[in-house]
Design goal:
274 residues, alpha/beta, Collagenase (Catalytic Domain), 7 helices, 19% strand, globular
Length: 274
């Protein structure tokens, strides 16, 4: 029997709102819910289409997603002219706050994993670090708080801390976002599955999972096609970081990684075409 390993992405915030595309709208409505989004249950295409409808208005309000109209005033540029189902897209989730304005992103790896597992995570982070300009990952090994906390589940539980079931898909990794009151990423918690049914992952497998989750850390959502690092399932994914993922990260955090600015800005796009 072939097991299906999936990635879960949980979006929260200091107000326990979901990801950027929903958090700002909910803040506008003065709603402060507790919401968990499991990305494996949400169509990437649906998320992209919903975001596009909210971003069809002109002016600065476009970047804050405050307008809830369906974009009917921009018929010449709306999604009806584009068949998104025929396109290979990588979703952009959100942008970091001014915590990365100094060009560093601090992370900490918990002591729950063995040294090989922790080194696999470091290798995955280094792969991203070498490809992204104007941002350096810095590991914190003392008791101070880090921007990104990375931990491991038990070897007999998946990343959701649930016992394995042969009939269900398995969460190989989970990324939980927390946002500040402006809707920018404030801190992140990543959980990696310790293995499958008591058997640990091979180092190369764990590196692929960690590389995928770090993609989320850098502001990426999921790809709507197989053969991409950010595909929802490890079966359909790859362990390589492609130009598509790099472009997505640059688009998500353009204010810092490209413009090298000090003031966070929301991503101008909701996806990149791969």
């Amino acid at each position: 029997m072939r097991l299906s390993l999936n990635y879960n992405t949980i979006h929260g915030s200091t107000f326990f709102t979901p990801c950027l595309m929903l958090s700002l709208i909910l803040l506008l409505l003065s709603v402060i819910p507790s919401v968990t989004i499991i990305s494996t249950s949400i169509s990437v295409m649906a998320s992209v289409e919903d975001n596009q409808k909210e971003n069809n208005d002109d002016g600065e309000e476009n970047t804050t997603e405050e307008d809830e109209e369906d974009g009917s005033d921009n018929d010449d540029n709306n999604d009806d002219d584009i068949d998104l189902d025929e396109m290979s897209l990588l979703q952009i989730c959100c942008a970091w706050s001014d915590k990365i304005s100094d060009g560093t992103l601090e992370y900490k790896i918990s002591d729950e994993g063995d040294e090989d597992s922790k080194q696999s995570v470091r290798n995955a982070i280094q792969d991203w670090d070498l490809l992204i300009d104007n941002l350096i990952f810095v590991e914190i090994q003392d008791d101070s708080e880090a921007d990104v906390e990375i931990g491991f589940s038990d070897s007999n539980e998946d990343a959701n801390d649930e016992e394995f079931d042969y009939g269900d898909s398995i969460a190989a990794g989970k990324t939980e976002f927390r946002f500040d009151n402006m809707g920018f990423i404030d801190n992140i918690e990543v959980t990696l599955s310790g293995g499958i049914f008591g058997n640990g992952f091979q180092n190369s497998e764990l590196e692929q999972i960690a590389r995928h989750e770090i993609g989320h850390v850098l502001g990426l959502g999921h790809a709507n096609f197989d053969g991409n690092l950010m595909s929802e399932s490890t079966d359909g994914g790859t362990d390589d970081i492609s130009t598509c993922e790099i472009n997505g990260v640059l688009a998500a955090n353009y204010w810092r990684l490209v413009a090298v600015g000090n003031n966070p800005e929301y991503p101008e796009a909701n996806f990149v075409v791969c």
